[in-house]
Design brief:
This protein has three helices and four strands; from the N terminus they run βααβαββ. The protein has 81 residues and is of the alpha+beta class. The protein is globular and about 25 Å long.
Length: 81
């Protein structure tokens, strides 16, 4: 069974690292931490792959910066799972 990761865990990882990411570098980091077969979920969406999860968070305004150099937007965290 694949790892089922909440998208909040992506934001927590980004916040802890304080790194700036591209789609490729964030995908690589998530694959390393959670595994290439991980499935991602939000409170309302299930079964996303890593690319879909990153796009989901982008569309929710959770990142700041440019398309090729972004980080977690300040103040965009939730405390629920």
């Amino acid at each position: 069974m694949s790892n089922n990761v909440h998208v909040h865990d992506i934001l927590n990882l980004m916040e802890a690292s304080q790194a700036t990411y591209s789609n490729e570098s964030l995908t690589a980091a998530l694959n390393q931490v959670f595994g290439e077969q991980a499935q991602y979920r939000s409170c309302k969406v299930q079964g996303m792959n890593v690319v879909e999860a990153i796009e989901f968070l982008k569309n929710k305004g959770k990142f700041e910066g440019t398309e090729t150099a972004f980080k977690k937007a300040a103040g965009h965290s939730c405390s629920h799972h």
